[in-house]
Design brief:
The chain is an alpha/beta fold. About 45% of the residues lie in helices and about 15% in strands. The protein has a six-stranded mixed beta sheet with strand order 3-2-1-4-5-6, with helices on both faces. β4, α3 and β5 form a beta-alpha-beta unit. The protein is globular and about 50 Å long. The chain starts with a strand and ends with a helix. The relative contact order is 0.16.
Amino acid sequence: MPLQIWVDADACPNIIKDILFRAADRRALPLILVANRIIATPPSSFIKAVQVANGFDVADNYIVQRCQTNDLVITADIPLAAEVVAKHAYALNPRGEMYSKENIKEHLAMRDFMTGLRDTGQMSGGGPSALGQRDKQAFANALDRFLAVNR
């Protein structure tokens, strides 16, 4: 089966989706966006959106159950990335960082540490900063590198 790209689309920035739409059409790759709401997609025989039920980790579970070895999952969700890496798939975050079996445990540990700091009030603040031009370029470059090697 050819490589498929799965997108954890609920939180994926539109600028990243646009890069993915162009890549899917240009390279004739199946791109599946999974979210608990309707996601607009351009007309393409390679791009489809799947709406799943509302609920904690429903979209993540859908992706984990269906992704195959060597598929690519686009997500900023580190536990989801860990699950797909365990299935011998690849995970790329919207800032251009590839998660791998070599680095996923470190990412999980840092996530848990930061969650602990926030939960105990030792650190405040929301999530990561907004995606900038540098992040967009890093993502596009990482996606191109991945597709050049894994196609």
